[in-house]
């Protein structure tokens, strides 16, 4: 079987008509060029060049083969260009994203990504982190924006992407009861959180246990917007990313509980298979980091306490460490 080096030598001999000129052009010795032509002819089983002619001429079959060889070399150059000019990337990126990101800065990110790579096609999946990691492991996704939790044995590249402060939010109809009843009233209200498989659920359970609420009633929802809606409607106390409910708080639809200690923040990474478009995925990650940083600047993490949002104080001042 022949390779591209042998094809290249053959094409240039036909073009220049001289082994010596081809050797100079390809920075090789004349015997090296001759060896490549000999191997190519052995592979195809026929003579491709008339070496007795001056300049060297292709044989009848050589002329026919020359057209195919040129196309093969041109196709190789086109393929290599895919990796040399990332702005011309025209493939499909199978991207998985958690819903918190999808409802914050993701639309801005997609708009800018399309501007940079107009030929790019996105196949988007929105799900919780454990399911995104499994789909990455199954090679159903090329890249995910999710919490860490990479499947064992999977070779990936992982870079920090965004941090979301978490808070507890309640509808105004429950505010007076919580202010008057304190922790006792809090423990009698249900909470609303993500799926039991999602990390925020487990972190909420552990956090409430530290505050003496050992057997909380927690309604689970698979989507962020469902948790927000249930919280606004007074179904329970929502455990939510602060920045994603800023508008609802400013409208007075939700009030934030003043906590004695912060809830664990959610840390998200950009994660992709090491073998999948590595330089392109790094460029995508840099753009996502820029969009996340800009969103964080436009949505301050802690408006409670500076008069922007109303808060509900449940714990006595002696426990309030904020």
From TrEMBL:
PANTHER family tied to this protein: HTH-TYPE TRANSCRIPTIONAL REGULATOR, TRANSCRIPTIONAL REGULATORY PROTEIN
Family annotation (SUPFAM superfamilies): Periplasmic binding protein-like II, Winged helix' DNA-binding domain
Keywords for the protein's UniProt record, in alphabetical order: DNA-binding, Transcription, Transcription regulation
Pfam families: HTH_1, LysR_substrate
Organism this protein belongs to: Salinicola corii
Domain of life of the native organism: Bacteria
Gene Ontology molecular functions: DNA-binding transcription factor activity; transcription cis-regulatory region binding
UniProt record similarity statement: Belongs to the LysR transcriptional regulatory family.
InterPro entries the record matches: LysR_HTH_N, LysR_subst-bd, WH-like_DNA-bd_sf, WH_DNA-bd_sf
Full protein name: LysR family transcriptional regulator
Residue intervals of the HTH lysR-type domain: 2-59
